[in-house]
C-alpha cells in the first residue's frame, strides 16, 4: 500500500511537472523516464524515492513469504513428531519404509484424505488445525521422503 502510494505520488508529480513545462514530446518522455520501467529493489530509480521504495518493499515481501507457509519439516517437527517419531497408537514411524510403503502405495491423495479427516488415533489435520492443504501435503511428503 505504502509502496503504491509512493509510486503513484511520484508519477503524479512528474506528470504534472511534465505538462506544465513541456515543450516537446521528447521532454515529456525524458521527465517520465524513471517511471517508464520497473524500479527494482537496489536500483537507482531516478533518485526519486528509489531508496525509500527499496527500504519499504523488501521487508514487506520477506514478511509475506514467511508468514503464509510453513515447510514440511517445520510442520512435522511442530505437530506430527510427537506421534510419528514414537509410533504411538500405531502411527507409522518416521524413517520406517516398512511401515510407510503400504501407505505410499495407496498414493498421496489417499494419505492426504486420511490426514485431513483423521482416522483412529490420527487426529484430523494431525493437530495442525491452521495448516492449509498444501502444508499438509508438504508435511506428508517430508515423512515419505524420510522413509526412502
Ligand atoms: C496424536 C498422534 C498423531 C499426530 C499428532 C499425528 N499423527 Fe499421523 N497418524 C497417527 C496414527 C495413530 C496413524 C495411523 C492411523 C491408521 O492407520 O489408522 C497416523 C497415520 C498417518 C498417515 C498415514 C495415513 C494413511 O493413509 O495410512 C499420515 C500421512 C499421517 N499420519 C500424517 C500426519 C501428519 C502430516 C501429521 C502432522 C501434521 C500427523 N500425522 C500427526 C497419529 C498421529
Question: Could you give the topology of this structure?
Answer:
Layout: H1 2-21, H2 25-36, H3 50-68, H4 72-84, H5 97-106, H6 108-117, H7 133-147
Description:
With about 150 residues, this protein is an all-alpha fold. The chain has two domains: about 70 residues, no CATH class; about 80 residues, Cytochrome c-like domain (Cytochrome Bc1 Complex, Chain D, domain 2, Orthogonal Bundle). Helices cover about 65% and strands about 0% of the residues. The protein has seven helices and no strands. The longest helix has 20 residues. The chain is elongated and about 80 Å long. The two termini are about 45 Å apart. About 25% of the residues have low confidence. The protein binds heme C. The site of heme C has 28 residues, from helix 4, helix 5, helix 6 and helix 7.
Proportion in helices? 55-70%
Q: Any idea of the CATH class of the largest domain?
A: Mainly Alpha
Bound molecules: heme C
Cα radius of gyration in angstroms:
26 Å
Judging from the principal axes of the Cα atoms, what is the shape? Answer: elongated
Count of helical stretches: 7
CATH T-level topology of the largest domain: Cytochrome Bc1 Complex, Chain D, domain 2
Number of distinct beta strands: 0
